[in-house]
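Kindly inspect the following:
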Amino acid sequence: MRKALLLSLLACSAACSDKELVGLHVNLRADGSGVLTTRTLLEPKEAGPAEAKAQGVAWEHRAVLSLSQGSFASVQGLQFGDIRFSGKTGDGEIPRLRVFVPRGPEATWVKALAPDQETRKRLAKVQDPTGKTREVGENLLLEIQFPDLVISSGVLPSGRGVEAAHERNKATLLVPAQTAIEKGEDLVWDITWR
């Protein structure tokens, strides 16, 4: 029992890393509808409720992880910034999903999830007061949960730090924020499932 608890805590700490703090999670249903959850790193200007409770403190930095969730009727119409989703979920064929992930300085999806690198470095001091973390939110994680087991998850072209993976009924695409805003070919992420 203790061993199982320790393993689950280690798995959570790896999954909840400050490097993959921001991103998108899509929970796709068999009919092509689903739920989109976003995790966005922000630097608010206004004081939060905890600051009002402290006395004798001159607040210098703020960081907020903003979470949003909403439903969509069809993955065919789903778009986040300039990320587009296209897929086939029925007709007796193997279901597949293709996600188009733009790269370059004008990629709006990156700006919607994380601030620039200088800000991410500054906010790392708020997220990790020990100073061990040099940059927070440096990787953008796109996760898709499917109604059944994932068969394949791959991305082209390859890029520095870009990783596509899958486990059980979830596929993930990890894109470093700096790679996402560098000029280069758009990423095409293909996933198949049962």
Summary: Residues 18-51+58-193 form one domain.
